[in-house]
Q: What sequence folds into this?
């Protein structure tokens, strides 16, 4: 082939490719164009082979032209393939049984993405906030179990059978004699055995159930968050400082705290931590029922029997645990009057709280 023949052949190939691609309606048609014009044994390949018939001075110039044409053909084919693949995928989507009025589309950036629709439930929002605070203090989060045995709910927590404190938790029972957990403390011994080493820092969150009549401030199902800290030489003052640091981070301001004795069988001594109402600075308001104080956290030094059950020698180690009712704190922080509204799924309420 002469230089002239090759050049005119090249022009004709480019024209043919453009014409064929512009008419192609399916991926198969584009694949056919690719096989014919650009792959092995294609006309373009034959043209490249014939370059060696040219004179040494013509060869580089014509060779460059052929290569340029090859690149342009390949990119045209690539573009046609992308266009048709996209078109076919949209057509398939349209044929599927989907809700085309849904206000988002996975491949359309101009429509609002999923995460800007709706908000987390107020309880989930506060769980996340509290876990953030505790994890920033080095605590490892664990989700509680909703169904458990007598052993983890009572025995392991220093409440053997016939212990009168078992009555303090009005538990439900399943037909198989399992207990929908009345507190998140059923995780304490489990976590001690799981983590094994001190310093042990864990935060437990979960849903608990008690057989109580529901009213504006009591629910039979509610949420608890509980912390566990074990190391050598842990004291009551470490406990109070940790609780205070958490409460201040949660309310986002300085909180004056005070403690009073409290009784929980799995701690010794037990305390109740009260915080001066951050909404009225102790003057008295609806949130604090006009007392100026909020009962925030139940806590105490882990009972030696519980430490032993979890595999920690109480002569060597000490620790503290605390727990709080999440629902009540959410109600206080958001000025919610009725605990039942947290579960009523009223969209106006859900949108108004966060
Ligand atoms: Zn108040």
A:
């Amino acid at each position: 082939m002469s230089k002239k023949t090759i050049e005119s052949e090249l022009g004709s190939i480019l024209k043919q490719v453009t014409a064929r691609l512009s008419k192609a309606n399916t991926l198969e048609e584009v694949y056919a164009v690719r096989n014919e014009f650009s792959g092995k044994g294609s006309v373009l390949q034959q043209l490249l082979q014939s370059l060696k018939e040219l004179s040494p001075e013509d060869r580089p110039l014509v060779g460059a032209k052929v290569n340029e044409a090859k690149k342009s053909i390949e990119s045209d084919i690539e573009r046609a393939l992308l266009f048709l693949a996209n078109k076919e995928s949209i057509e398939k989507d349209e044929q599927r049984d989907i809700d085309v009025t849904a206000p988002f589309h996975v491949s359309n950036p101009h429509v609002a993405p999923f995460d800007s629709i709706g908000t987390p439930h107020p309880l989930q929002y506060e769980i996340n906030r509290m876990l953030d605070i505790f994890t920033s203090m080095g605590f490892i989060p664990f989700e509680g179990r909703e169904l458990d045995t007598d052993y983890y709910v009572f025995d392991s927590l220093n409440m053997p059978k016939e212990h009168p404190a078992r009555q303090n938790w009005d538990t439900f029972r399943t037909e198989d004699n399992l207990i929908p957990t009345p507190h998140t403390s059923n995780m304490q011994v489990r976590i001690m055995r799981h983590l094994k080493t001190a310093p042990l820092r864990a935060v437990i969150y979960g849903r608990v159930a008690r057989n109580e009549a529901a009213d504006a401030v009591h629910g039979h199902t509610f949420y608890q968050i509980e912390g566990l800290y074990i190391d050598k030489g842990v004291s009551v003052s470490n406990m109070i400082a940790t609780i205070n640091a958490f409460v201040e981070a949660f309310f986002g301001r300085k909180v004056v705290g005070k403690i009073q004795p409290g009784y929980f069988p799995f701690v010794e001594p037990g305390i109740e931590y009260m915080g001066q109402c951050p909404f009225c600075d102790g003057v008295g308001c609806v949130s604090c029922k006009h007392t100026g104080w909020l009962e925030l956290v139940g806590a105490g030094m882990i009972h030696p029997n519980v430490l032993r059950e979890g595999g920690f020698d109480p002569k060597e180690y000490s620790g503290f645990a605390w727990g709080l009712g999440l629902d009540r704190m959410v109600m206080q922080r958001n000025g919610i009057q009725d605990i039942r509204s947290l579960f009523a799924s009223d969209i106006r309420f859900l949108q108004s709280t966060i």
Observations:
- The two ends are 78 Å apart (CA to CA).
- Residues 277, 279-280, 284-285, 287-288 surround zinc ion (CB under 6 Å).
